[in-house]
Amino acid sequence: MRVQVLGCSGGIGGVNARTTSLRVDHDILIDAGTGLADLSLPELAAIDHVFVTHSHLDHIAALPLMIDAVADLRESPVTIHATAVTLETIRSHIFNWAIWPDFSEIAVRDRQVMQYRPIAVGQTVTLAGRSITALPAEHTVPAVGYQLDSGQGSLAFTGDTTICEEFWPVVNRIANLRYLLIEAAFSDGEEVLARASKHLCPRLLRNELGKLASPVEVFVTHLKPGQAAAIIAEIESGPGPHPAILREGQIFEF
């Protein structure tokens, strides 16, 4: 399994500030933020499945544009996987004919363009030997993270979350876990805002990582562009071990 970081910023504003999207091999996306827009048209047309963590715009911004771009290039529908609540939000507020056409109702040359598939926490979808499992998360809207399992190794991605006691027992049971991608959107100076918006800051992040049972490689994602320098400094100056900062273009193979 090959995971490419297309975008991992908590906002836009700068050359390397593209919002969250991970490409798994050539045919799966985890979230569809602005990082997705750098793919070529053939690369976009190869995407068969999109797993959405939650409905916030920075995680779905490029999804409507992608579906529109590939509608006449595919032989089968793009499948959107998310919790039932998230799918209903996307259907009601994005693919609603007022903001964007509902491509789940559109056929091109008699072929459906897009379809929705609900996924629940703990549920696993297996695609060509690759398993994707929804993980618990705690955010201002219903949200999940995802475990990506190749059979040889796993990567766990929290998505957007704050303190989440349910997350750690699940992750600690992943015997082949190699990588953890976990968010920290704000600096410690903005801890009140981090808590209110149900994100993490370095102080909360250290506490959460203390619940991780196995020594895996940890990468911090979703830094707000205006807070990034302070977040990195606080992570690097805090008590170790220090997690790495996730970078756009980074590749994980497992």
Question: At the fourth CATH level, what is the homologous superfamily?
Answer: Ribonuclease Z/Hydroxyacylglutathione hydrolase-like
Q: Would you identify the CATH architecture?
A: 4-Layer Sandwich
Q: Quaternary arrangement of the chains shown?
A: single chain
Tell me the number of helical segments per DSSP (H or I, 4 or more residues long). 8
Reading off the top of the CATH hierarchy, the class is best stated as Alpha Beta
Count of distinct strands: 16
Characterise the protein shown here.
The chain is of the alpha/beta class and 254 residues long. It has eight helices and 16 strands. It has helices at 41-45, 57-60, 63-70, 84-93, 167-172, 191-196, 202-209, 228-237; strands at 2-7, 21-24, 28-30, 49-51, 78-82, 107-108, 111-112, 114-118, 124-127, 130-136, 144-149, 154-157, 177-183, 217-221, 244-245, 251-253. A seven-stranded mixed β-sheet has the order 8-5-4-3-2-1-16.
Structural key phrases:
254 residues, 8 helices, alpha/beta, Metallo-beta-lactamase, Chain A
Layout of SSEs?
Layout: E1 2-7, E2 21-24, E3 28-30, H1 41-45, E4 49-51, H2 57-60, H3 63-70, E5 78-82, H4 84-93, E6 107-108, E7 111-112, E8 114-118, E9 124-127, E10 130-136, E11 144-149, E12 154-157, H5 167-172, E13 177-183, H6 191-196, H7 202-209, E14 217-221, H8 228-237, E15 244-245, E16 251-253
Parallel strand pairs: 3-4, 4-5, 5-8, 12-13, 13-14, 14-15
Antiparallel strand pairs: 1-2, 1-16, 2-3, 6-7, 9-10, 10-11, 11-12
